[in-house]
Specification:
Blueprint (H helix, E strand, L loop, with lengths): L1 H7 L9 E9 L4 H15 L5 E10 L11 H11 L2
Parallel strand pairs: 1-2
């Protein structure tokens, strides 16, 4: 999260009237645990004007390279991306 926030800092003045799409990945597949990360993203988005939260993807349950391709999150991300 810190890296995300640090990288976004230079764009702070340009972040208004934007669509936000969230994807969180983790080994844990408990959506309740992943919600904590979404809460942080929501707190970040609250700092800007006219932000629209357009999608959330829960990518839990993968801990080995390539495993995510077999999870529903992979196709969900693909389908969400087609709508952008």
């Amino acid at each position: 999260m810190k890296v995300f926030l640090d990288r976004m800092n230079p764009l702070y003045g340009k972040m208004k009237d934007k669509d936000f799409y969230y994807m969180v990945t983790a080994q844990d597949d408990d959506k309740k645990q992943l919600e904590r990360a979404f809460d942080v993203f929501d707190g970040f988005a609250d700092c800007f004007e006219d932000i629209r939260r357009c999608g959330r993807i829960y990518g839990g349950g993968a801990d080995k390279k390539g495993e995510v391709k077999d999870l529903p999150a992979f196709s969900e991300a693909y389908e969400l991306g087609k709508k952008i």
